[in-house]
Design brief:
With 428 residues, the chain is α/β, with parallel strands linked by helices. β2 and β3 form a beta hairpin. α6 packs across α13 and α13 runs antiparallel to α14.
Length: 428
């Protein structure tokens, strides 16, 4: 089974390079439509830590070439002529690709081990691909099994204990820098899932005040109500910068929303009070040169590595248990694939056997005109039992064997089409 993946992640590339490949949700549908023209069967998974393309192709070499070609197009779409991507790209196929998706969905390949957001992001990628009709049954089956595997990992291990995420360890880092948050106010820019995770982490860390803003005013109002906090209009961020002690920003904007000019003007009116930024967006929400302003500290995704490693070490035992579950599910998934691939042939075999059985029963009953209805039912039941027992071994073999030559031999032995589904489609 030629499942394929090509991508770039926090494990293979620096954050600055990875951000060029980041795809926000508004662009995802358009890129999938473009990807189907180049790759055909495709799912695109893009998060703050990775951009990966998944496909299924009977021709492994062709499929890999198409994925790498499209990944390059994504990389060059915003800044043509940039440095080549290949040094940072990984490409996997077969069981390696299946295992990789299971690990990603279960949070084992995340920056923060066991991060809970990723399963939802995988489910979103699957849903968008389904709506775009860019996903084959094979690939759909793989993604659904990956999501089920992640649930099993989380329910059977401590990998998701305390629901540690990029947002929560970012807030830990911010707390270390600021000290106690008890008397401090924090502006949260972005009221989506990541922003709300950050706000809840701030609450757990005893923050004095949270102020929420979002491009969607109604969402900011809802989030503020849930948190028992204030909200400000998105256009008033520059005013909020005059009074807050820190800013946590995590929007899906395609470019920075907090400019150097905005921060410089705010710092001129803050009477020397320091200002901290935690930017967990990709691409970054805070313009890079903001880091050069006196009195300003900016923490980004690249600054979270050390604290993330501490959490990883604390969960090493749970990670080992999760890896064992993934290996078991990989074997189970391959067994299911073999069975699914043989089902059309099994159905055709059963239909052929039943056609022969019914014809022979009809001939026999013509020679036995005096039988009662009860006698006819006995003969019918006996014929069904004989057919079932005769086909039991061939069907069991087809459902457990991945030997295509042997499956073809079974089809020829019973004078059946080797691919019944395609044959019926062609005939129609």
């Amino acid at each position: 089974m030629n499942f394929l993946v090509a991508g770039v992640s926090h494990n293979s590339a620096p954050i600055e390079r990875l951000q060029r490949l980041t795809i926000n949700r508004r662009s995802l549908s358009d890129l999938i439509q473009q990807g189907t023209l180049i790759v055909g069967d495709i799912v695109i998974l893009s998060t703050c830590n990775r951009t990966e393309l998944y496909s299924y192709n009977p021709d492994k070499e062709v499929g890999e070439r198409q994925l790498l070609e499209f990944l390059e197009i994504i990389d060059q779409r915003l800044e043509p002529g940039a440095a080549p991507l290949p040094p940072y790209v990984y490409s996997l196929s077969g069981d390696d690709a299946i295992r990789h998706l299971f690990r990603v969905t279960s949070g084992l390949d995340a920056l923060v081990l066991g991060e809970p957001e990723i399963a939802g992001q995988v489910a979103h990628a699957l849903r968008v691909a389904g709506e775009a009709k860019s996903i084959s049954p094979h690939l759909s089956r793989l993604f659904h099994h990956a999501i089920r595997t992640s649930r099993k990992v989380r329910s059977s291990t401590d990998i998701g204990r305390a629901r540690v995420s990029v947002s929560s360890i970012g807030v830990d880092l911010l707390t270390r820098a600021v000290g106690s948050l008890e008397d401090h106010s924090v502006l949260v820019v972005g009221a989506g899932e990541t922003g709300m995770q950050a706000a809840r982490a701030l609450r757990r860390n005893g923050v004095g005040e949270i102020i929420v803003t979002s491009r969607r005013r109604e969402r900011a109002i809802e989030a503020a109500a849930e948190l028992g906090s204030k909200y400000v209009d998105f256009d008033d961020i520059h005013t909020a910068l005059l009074t807050v002690d820190a800013v946590v920003t995590c929007t899906a904007a395609e470019s920075s929303i907090i400019s150097t000019k905005m921060v410089r003007e705010a710092m001129a009116e803050r009477d020397g009070r320091a200002l901290f930024f935690l930017d967990v967006a990709l691409p970054p929400d805070v313009e890079a040169s903001v880091r050069e302003i006196d009195g300003v500290t900016v923490f980004g995704l690249g600054d979270l590595t050390e604290i993330a490693e501490v959490h990883r070490n604390e969960r090493a035992h749970a990670a080992n248990a999760a890896e064992a579950i993934i290996e078991s599910e990989l074997l189970h998934f391959n067994d299911l694939l073999v069975g699914a691939a043989s089902e059309p042939l099994i159905r055709a075999l059963g239909e052929r056997a039943d056609t022969v059985r019914e014809a022979e029963i009809a001939r026999a009953l013509k020679r036995l005109p005096g039988l009662s209805d009860a006698d006819r039912e006995v003969i019918d039941a006996m014929s069904r039992a004989i057919v079932k027992k005769l086909l039991a071994d061939p069907i069991a073999y087809l459902r457990t064997s991945d030997d295509l030559e042997s499956s073809s031999a079974v089809a020829r032995a019973f004078d059946l089409p080797e691919d019944p589904d395609n044959e019926s489609t062609d005939a129609a």
